[in-house]
Amino acid sequence: MTGARVLVVGGAGYIGTHMVLALLEAGHEVIVLDDLSQGNLDLLPGGDFIQGDLGDRGLLDGLFGRGRVDAVMHFAAHARVGESVGEPLKYWDNNVARTVALLSAMVRQGVGRFLFSSSAAVYGEPERVPIVESHPCRPTNPYGRTKRAVEELLAECDAAYGLRSMCLRYFNAAGADPAGRLGERHRPETHLIPLVLEAAGGRSGPVRIYGTTYPTPDGTCVRDFVHVSDLVQAHLLALEALLDGAPSAVYNLGSGRGRSVREVIALARRVTGRPIESVEAGPRPGDPAVLVAGSDRIRAELGWRPQWDDLEAILETAWAWQLKEASRPGRPGDGGGPGAG
Fold first, then answer.
1. Reduced to 3 states, what is the DSSP secondary structure of residue 96?
2. CA-CA distance, 313 to 255, in Å (whole number)?
3. Which helix (DSSP H) or strand (DSSP E) does residue 281 occupy?
């Protein structure tokens, strides 16, 4: 179905901007709500933009009252594991309380389809790998617990109000729009791949490897990287399913292949042709050793077929974006310390 009217919350962020672009290219009408605390308005590719806070009941009621909204996509969470350990109230307020406000407004206004940006962090330390959706959810940090709390709330909203949802559990989103129009820009940056590439470009110091004694082949954390373009295509498939009457569901989004921090750094050296220094540090609280996705369910039920499942190709798109960002006039200075995934 084309021509749906979709509200994208957090649409000026990394994944949100790629999602807005994909929705527009698919023929949908887009409304973007973002408070710009983390988003970048200059990267927003289109849509009807509204700056505002999810906790503002009057704003939400007014927004939904302006015309039909067929579905809501929610990308407006705080998402730094380490920060969540030190500031749990910040995470429960933004990730849960403000989502409650959004869902309440949807119920009041009769909007019944919701796509939720969830996370592999809901699983915690896996009992087995790859992780499938039926794996027990035992999150090890406040970030993961807030994501899991919203998932549970959505199941209750379906039972009570008929509000259908798709919870998409990302593993590690990475890469940039292959055409070079969009990419990852956070300040401070905490994601492994852009930090490694900033080091390659001489725009930051050595990459800090958090933890080298994990029970993995080289002692560093292992993660599953999924290209942002494949991720937003999964959202389009989930949106089409909801619009066609599909029931609520939960899906993993990952490549099914794990890469360690040391492997990512080595591959980035090959892609960029640059030396990348690293230093070892202690593990961060709340970081599981291995997170690798089993994504067979979304492939079988929605027909998801990732096009960018090779990490070298993912790094190439991210590196092209880094070079473009480095040449941008008025580029803000780098902030935050190096880190790993």
1. helix
2. 13
3. strand 278-281
* C-beta of residue 70 within 8 angstroms of C-beta of residue 4: yes
Residues 153 and 201 in one domain: no
pLDDT string in tens for the chain (341-residue length): 568 999 999 999 999 999 999 999 999 999 999 999 999 999 999 999 999 999 899 999 999 998 899 999 999 999 988 899 999 999 999 999 999 999 999 999 999 999 999 999 999 989 999 999 999 999 999 999 999 999 999 999 999 999 999 999 999 999 999 999 999 998 788 889 999 999 999 888 899 999 999 999 999 999 999 999 999 999 999 999 999 999 999 999 999 999 999 999 999 999 999 999 999 999 988 788 999 999 999 999 999 999 998 999 999 999 999 999 888 775 543 332 222 32
Q: Which domain holds residue 17?
A: 5-173+226-253
Q: Does residue 143 carry a catalytic annotation?
A: yes
How many domains does one find in the chain? 2
| 89/142 same-domain check | yes
State how beta strands 222-227 and 258-260 pair. Answer: antiparallel
Regarding pTM above 0.70, the answer is: yes
Considering 143, 170, 214, 251, which one is annotated as catalytic? Answer: 143
